[in-house]
Amino acid sequence: MASLQDTYTLSNGVKIPVLGYGTWQVTDPQEAVEGVVNAVKEGYRHIDTAQMYKNEEYVGKGIKECGVPREELFVTSKLNNNNHGYDRARKTIEESLERLDLDYLDLFLIHWPVVKENGGDWKQDNIDTWRALEDLYDEGKLKAIGLSNFAVPHLENIEENCRIKPMVNQIRLHPGVLQEDTVEMSRKQNMVIEAWSPLSPMKYMEENTKVQAMCSEYGKSIAQILLRWSLQHGFVTLTKSVHEERIRQNADIFDFELSQGDMDYLDSLKFDELSKPDDFQER
Ligand SMILES: NC(=O)c1ccc[n+]([C@@H]2O[C@H](COP(=O)([O-])OP(=O)(O)OC[C@H]3O[C@@H](n4cnc5c(N)ncnc54)[C@H](OP(=O)(O)O)[C@@H]3O)[C@@H](O)[C@H]2O)c1
Predict the structure, then answer these.
(1) Domain of 138: which CATH number?
(2) Whose CA is nearest to atom 11 of ligand 1?
(3) Which residue has the least CA distance to atom 7 on ligand 1?
(4) Which residues constitute the domain of residue 113?
(5) Are 141 and 89 in contact (CB under 8 A)?
(6) Mind listing the UniProt keywords for this protein, alphabetically (predicted)?
(7) Residue 35 forms part of a structural domain
(8) Residue 80 CB–ligand 1 contact under 6 Å
(9) Which stretches does DSSP call E strand in the chain?
(10) Partners of residue 17 on adjacent β-strands
(11) 138 alpha carbon to ligand 1 midpoint, in Å?
């Protein structure tokens, strides 16, 4: 891994850049457009949005204005929880394409496996929703399809009932939240793992003298150490900032390597505040 434009190859042959620019909580139109433009200027080629973020329109504007041809970018969006079900998923994915003003998405994900309002039959709900993604994949509107926040039982359900296997699982991963079972199962099912909110533990690590020593040794910030940790685990890493300097800093992680001892230490960290599943969910 030498640069932020390096890629992994998904199970269907599509290439996905290892570092993605995230857009969660970027609701201000100008910040959303400028964020994408600045990220692409800094070399990011992978942009992650979602119907839930309510910024697809502005992310789409950023893509138009960034000066890099569409085919050189990798753009992901995700299905909102209230858009599950075959017909609704199909319709609203078309609407995402319209808002983004794109002919196709490089990757589209079911954002969350369980829709609380639907209550009962999450299994059938996910099967029906997945079928919509499969059909749009066949039609060429989605170049790759996948899942997000799917844990082992949800993954098993899709595997047992799908026609086309999911290519990605996007989940929360960082020191303190390792989700080993989900990572293992996703990889067994031939999926690439994407890591969201990699910087969540940052403020809990500031007082940690061992982490401070790592920052001095590598000449990097805590944010850069966390992003590097994620890459070295083989995760496609998604990170967000609306500040140009941080967008640049977060991409400057390809010129150092954490030792195995440092990786093991970061793996061993626990943060009670970050371990309650419902606290960190977007929905
Ligand atoms: N599938 C899902 O359910 C799911 C859930 C959450 C996120 N995601 C995706 O994953 C992406 C990444 O997650 P995230 O948004 O939580 O991103 P993150 O990169 O883990 O954290 C972003 C936060 O850290 C700050 N920050 C960024 N770079 C920094 C730096 N170098 N130094 C200090 N602070 C820094 C940002 O503030 P400023 O913007 O003010 O710089 C922002 O508050 C999301 O944007 C979204 O696309 C997916």
Answers:
(1) 3.20.20.100
(2) 22
(3) 196
(4) 7-201+231-243
(5) no
(6) NADP, Oxidoreductase
(7) yes
(8) no
(9) 7-9, 15-17, 19-22, 46-48, 74-79, 107-110, 145-148, 168-172, 192-196, 236-239
(10) 7
(11) 32
Identify whether 215 is part of a domain.
no
What distance in Å separates the CA atoms of residue 112 and residue 79, rounded to the nearest whole number? 8
Tell me whether residue 111 is annotated as binding.
yes
CA of residue 199 to ligand 1 center, whole Å: 6
Nearest to 239 by CA among 6, 4, 21: 21
* 1 within ligand 1 shell (Cβ under 6 A): no
Indicate whether 211 belongs to any domain. no
**Using CA atoms, how far apart are residues 152 and 84, in angstroms rounded to an integer?**
20
For the chain, the domain total comes to 1
Q: Is 53 a catalytic residue?
A: yes
Is the residue at 157 inside a domain?
A: yes
Query: Which residue is catalytic, options 8, 21, 44, 53?
Result: 53
Residue 34 CB less than 6 A away from ligand 1: no
If you measure from the C-alpha of residue 124 to the centroid of ligand 1, how many angstroms do you get, rounded to a whole number? 32
Residue 20 CB-density burial (10 A; 0-12 exposed, 13-18 middle, 19+ buried):
buried
Whole-number Å distance between alpha carbons of 69 and 65: 10
Indicate if ligand 1 lies below 6 Å from the C-beta of 280.
Answer: no
**What spacing in Å lies between the alpha carbon of 26 and ligand 1's midpoint?**
10
Q: Is the CB of 179 under 6 A from ligand 1?
A: no
